[in-house]
Sequence to fold (178 residues):
Amino acid sequence: MNQHWLTLLRAEVARTSQGACAKRLKVDRTAINKVLKGRYMADTKNIEAKVLQVLDNTPWLHALRAEVARTSQARTAERLRVSEATISQVLSGSYKASTQRIERRVRGELLGEVVECRVLYDISLRVCQDVQERQRGAGSNPHYQQCFSACRGQGRWEHKGACPHYCGGGSAGKDGAK
Fold:
């Protein structure tokens, strides 16, 4: 279970008070107290959602929420090239895997973040993530073949090491790196 929301709640209570936190989240102070003590008997999903919505100050998450509110989860997922279930889980705080891949896609596609690629020059962070996730030999585009090696610091890029933007190519074991 993802406990990020609980960490945020504890930090907010430490920074302010249980009463102030409850007021900000628009929940009962007793509920906050019981959640923090591990004695809350009801389902915590509503509190989790409020904590993530109000207390999580991550810019990429705000951009993701805004895009979903502006369009829909389905359209946002399509734009980011991830599943709708992934978007739903990230927004609810129940996504079990690391959110690094999703964060990079949001920062590149929705926030317009650009990185310098050794092969493709200035590209969006989402395109960088797409390139990293391609299998070696996928497609016939020679740029992708060069990117595969450049990202991993292989071949003629071995002396430079792995690209500073390289994050493992998405899934472990999928990239073919040694």
